[in-house]
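QA checklist item 7 of 12: single-chain prediction sanity check.
[x] sequence parsed
[x] length recorded as 148
[x] structure emitted
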Amino acid sequence: MNTLHLRQRGVGLFDGIAALAVLGFGLLSLTGFQGRLVAQSTEAQHRLVASQLADELLNTALIDSAGNTVCYVLPAPGGCSAASAAALAYTADWRARVLASGLPNVVDPTVATAASGRLTVTLSWRWTSKDGTTPAETRTHTVISDPR
């Protein structure tokens, strides 16, 4: 029998094991990549919801013909007249929708006004940790607009 042929036994098996190891490493890498992709997609969805909610309030304050900008503030300010009741009611309804928006562990939103008349809307929410019980990271989305 040929001695060269006897020395090459098992080489195909070794090649197969090496190929399986490379394939396993590749699949493991793809799994990690997909997990990060899902997390980033979820965060982008949360930022989109926060942007839409902030934009909704700011646009409502912008088109308010009565000039009730200061009545769109949260927590609700004192000194708004009876004519501003619609603005106060809308802001309270908007706050309730923010709290029910699906943002995880959403914090009570704040809307502040500056002396210049600019409105600042701040929405915050907290990601939950991997164990699913304790808040881990806080995300904040702030929009500033001049509704004058």
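[x] summary fact logged: The chain has a mean pLDDT of 83.
[ ] second reviewer sign-off
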